[in-house]
Amino acid sequence: MDRPLIAAAGNALEVAAAMEVLEGGAGHPRLRRLTEVLGGEVLALGGLASSVEEGMAKIAAALDDGRACERFCAMVAAQGGPADFDVGWRRQLPRAEVVVPVPAPRDGIAGMVDGQALGMVVVGLGGGRRREGDGIDPRVGLSDLVAPGTRLDAGAPLAMVHAADLAAAERAVTAVLAAHAAARPAAEAPAPLLRGRVA
Questions:
Q1: CA-to-CA distance for 51 and 54, rounded, in angstroms?
Q2: Does residue 92 carry a pLDDT above 90?
Q3: Using CA atoms, how far apart are residues 172 and 134, in angstroms rounded to an integer?
Q4: Are 112 and 118 in contact (CB under 8 A)?
Q5: Which site from 34, 63, 106, 129 is most exposed, i.e. has the minimal number of CB atoms within 10 Å?
Q6: Distance of alpha carbon 103 from alpha carbon 10, whole angstroms
Q7: Who's near 23: CB < 8 A, 6+ residues apart?
Q8: Alpha-carbon distances of 46 from 40, 41, 43, 52, 172, rounded to whole Å
Q9: What digits encode the pLDDT tens for the residues 21-51?
Q10: Interhelix angle for 29-45 vs 52-65, to 10°?
Q11: Tens digits of residue pLDDT in 93-105
Q12: Residue 2: what pLDDT?
């Protein structure tokens, strides 16, 4: 994986992206494409489609007409979640108290940031566990992550930090800047989303 599937990392932020795909939105094309391909494989393996391509078409149709979102929201309700998650998820997902940008320190081109480094920023915000038994804050994370190869002016946001308080946000901004400072130059052409198929 040379870049995230979506431009966000963190529990509620990632659920929001998944919901946007389930609603048929085009805002996360890499996630949508992977969903179609993997779903197509599952349908073909299960005998519910005659080929992966037919399975992909079925998945795309279910995303576009709302059936995928309807089914997911029924599962949420069956597990004790809100019965109206399909219409209320935008207001029901928790939001961080503090949202601040990470300003690019200079003009330039965004490089290939280590995904593990960004993941550790989310952990540092409380969005992941360092030890068994640690709590998780679903509100926190990173959004609007700039894609490798993007030309930026100084001060333009590299990402948005979602934090519980200003001190945590400031630590996260420093960590994201460090991750960008250590980034490898962006490849001329990004690696393909799917490198191959094992069957």
A1: 5
A2: yes
A3: 19
A4: no
A5: 106
A6: 20
A7: 63, 66, 69
A8: 10, 8, 5, 11, 44
A9: 999 988 899 999 999 999 999 999 999 999 9
A10: 130
A11: 999 999 999 999 9
A12: 60
Return residue ranges of the chain for CATH 3.90.1170.30. Answer: 98-181
Residue showing tokens 């130059």: 185
Structure tokens at 38: 């993997």
Per the listing, tokens 């068994």 go with 132
Write the burial class of residue 170 (CB in 10 Å: 0-12 exposed, 13-18 middle, 19+ buried): middle
Q: Which of 118, 101, 143 is nearest to 12 (CA)?
A: 143
Within 10 angstroms of residue 176's Cβ, the number of other Cβ atoms is 22
Report pTM. Answer: 0.88
H-assigned helices in the chain? 11-22, 29-45, 52-65, 67-78, 85-92, 115-122, 166-181
Q: Give CA torsion, residues 133, 92, 64, 148, to 10 deg.
A: -60
**Torsion angles phi and psi, residue 99, rounded to 5:** -130, 120
Q: What distance in Å separates the CA atoms of residue 124 and residue 100, rounded to the nearest whole number?
A: 16
Which CATH number does the domain 98-181 belong to among 3.90.1170.30, 3.20.20.370, 3.40.50.720, 3.40.50.2000? 3.90.1170.30
